[in-house]
Amino acid sequence: MTNSLSARDDVPDAYTTHLPGGQHWSLRLRRGTTLSLTAREADTNVGLLCYNPENLLERLNLPDTLKCQHTFKLTRGNCLYSDMGRVFASIVEDDLGWHDSVGGNLNRAHMITKGWQPVSFQQALNDRTQTGHDSFLVELAKYGLGRRDMAANLNLFSKVESDEAGRLRYVPGHCQPGQRVMLRFDMDTLVLLHTCPHPLDPSACYPHRGVDIALGTAPAPDEEDICWRACPENARGFANNRLYHLGLQGA
């Protein structure tokens, strides 16, 4: 499977794997790495969190991400910001046009409300019904982090709309098999993923929907980059990255 930036179609992916539904994954991704996620089934959901591996107190800040880019949804051209005003990653390719930034994370209370039966690993092995909240806690623990380090997560592949009264509505069918999103990491980033369902997913039974993962590389962005040019705030975010990396080089 080859998932590369369009300008580098001749470059194969450095690594590929499949993450089944209801599972979790984490990895430290270096600056200049691309992460491509491809859905195998409709209504796939991928929860995502980001941390600075050099300073784990710095993490994904979705309120700032939305506010500085004047948007409710995230898609190609948008950046994912840390709480230090730096760009963790940029969305450089996107087949969906909308990724949920406000829906939050599936927890045990959501499962009980939905009537989804909690099933442990001891009962069903990889077919257990894991929550996104617990999945992130498992991955956080690998790096000495815990519940207080949880941040608001992005839900890739999912769409949640708001009506005039402010009520949120999950949009079934937004994600279709084969659709893909690619992130380019603009600083070293600890990435946490899970493939647990969206908390507003209306499925009668707990859905297990996985994604294909591909890692590659991309050139550093410049002032002609689609994400850089998307809004003045993004140009300032990349300037903050440049200053940060100059400081690392001088350390």
Would you mind describing this structure in some detail?
The structure is a single chain. With 251 residues, the protein is an alpha+beta fold. The longest helix is centred in the last third of the chain and has 19 residues. The radius of gyration is 18 Å and the shape is globular.
Keywords, please?
single chain, 251 residues, alpha+beta, 6-stranded antiparallel sheet, 5-stranded antiparallel sheet, 5 helices, globular
* Shape field: globular
Looking at how many chains there are and whether they match, the oligomeric state comes to: single chain
Number of strands: 13
What portion of residues is helical? 10-25%
Q: Kindly state the mean pLDDT as a whole number?
A: 92
Please, how many domains? 1
Q: Per DSSP, what share of the residues sits in E-state strands of 2 or more residues?
A: 25-35%
Structural class: alpha+beta
Low-confidence parts: 1-9
Give, in spatial order, the strands making up the sheet with the most strands: 1-13-3-11-7-6
- Provide the gyration radius in Å: 18 Å
Alpha plus pi helix count: 5
Whole-Å distance between the termini?
A: 39 Å
Q: Main sheet? A: 6 strands, antiparallel
Helix-strand pattern, N to C? EEEEEHEEHHHEEEEEEH
